[in-house]
């Protein structure tokens, strides 16, 4: 039996989530979006204002005559969140307000020694807390996005390739609520902040790795082994090498990862076919990055156009195979290579070549301005939206 207070709490959470998705809205618009009566909506908004979570803004622009509606938005200084993005190469720490404005940022190389590295992160967090004069009651929580498999407590693989209790280390030392998930699911949660879709397949193809997540009924699915859709490790080529992460032969990530593209480029930097890229890098191998490679491809470099076409085909086949066993129509994809017009065209063509039904119409390709906000989305989902 649903209690009245539960319904009230859910309505409050729905209001907050809607304000993150669509930002500055009037009470009238919020009531229409959520199907609430104006009187109920006004009462809930008044309570949220008293709690300090939302605030009134300036009158909204309107084409209709009459009194302008007052905007409602999240109050930025209600609380603050820390977001930590941790992969095998780099660690990033963000301090963010409730309006998702980045107040501070620290980045450093990930150490191969887990205990030493986590202690270094804790020291950085303490310095940020002191620098911004934050009390424990002002911090909503710490979100940690980990590369690889995690059960929400331990890191199992992807960074140190051993099981390590990350959650206990942070909570014992900082006495602040901590929530942990893998990078793919955190990114899917970030995507949800900008979309009203409650059911979609999420694919991420970026430098830390390739992966997928499933959003059903507005919630990220995890599965029994905390890896409900191991998209990046689908076997694609039986002749390929074994992947050090999944131990499978010829998986998607081992074949088309951004890391493999960068390594291929370094190995062939002096090749005559890379002259266009060498010019973009000023002849310095240290200047190689995925942006220069994409620029070389878009400028007509034959070597990288062949490579992008090949990688786009693998990605398209993996997606088509995944959709064949998943009952989800909508697909949202983000990735470094989607900034390349050439790669996007090769990917679109490959989808049409291998799938005659119009699934491409259900694919949306998004480019995030700040993927480092993904662990912040995790904090909001854990401590604010639920």
Short description:
The protein is an alpha/beta fold. The protein has three domains: 4-74, Winged helix-like DNA-binding domain superfamily/Winged helix DNA-binding domain (Arc Repressor Mutant, subunit A), CATH 1.10.10.10; 80-190 and 372-383, ATPase, nucleotide binding domain (Nucleotidyltransferase, domain 5), CATH 3.30.420.40; 197-367, Nucleotidyltransferase, domain 5, CATH 3.30.420. 40% of the residues lie in helices and 20% in strands.
N-to-C SSE series? HEHHEEEEEHEEEHEHEEEHHHHHEHEH
Strand order of the largest sheet: 6-5-4-7-10
In CATH, the topology of the largest domain is named Nucleotidyltransferase, domain 5
Mean of pLDDT: 90
How helix-rich are the residues, as a percent range? Answer: 40-55%
Radius of gyration: 23 Å
Helix vs. strand class: alpha/beta
CATH class identity of the largest domain: Alpha Beta
Distance between the termini: 18 Å
Give a structural overview:
The structure is a single chain. It contains 13 helices and 15 strands. It has helices at residues 4-22, 27-34, 38-50, 114-131, 166-174, 183-192, 252-256, 258-267, 275-280, 290-298, 302-325, 341-354, 374-383, and strands at residues 25-26, 54-59, 70-74, 80-86, 90-97, 102-109, 139-146, 154-155, 164-165, 178-182, 200-206, 209-216, 219-220, 331-335, 363-366. The longest helix has 24 residues, at 302-325. It is globular.
Strands, helices and their partners?
Layout: H1 4-22, E1 25-26, H2 27-34, H3 38-50, E2 54-59, E3 70-74, E4 80-86, E5 90-97, E6 102-109, H4 114-131, E7 139-146, E8 154-155, E9 164-165, H5 166-174, E10 178-182, H6 183-192, E11 200-206, E12 209-216, E13 219-220, H7 252-256, H8 258-267, H9 275-280, H10 290-298, H11 302-325, E14 331-335, H12 341-354, E15 363-366, H13 374-383
Helix pairs in contact: 2-3, 4-5, 6-13, 10-11, 11-12
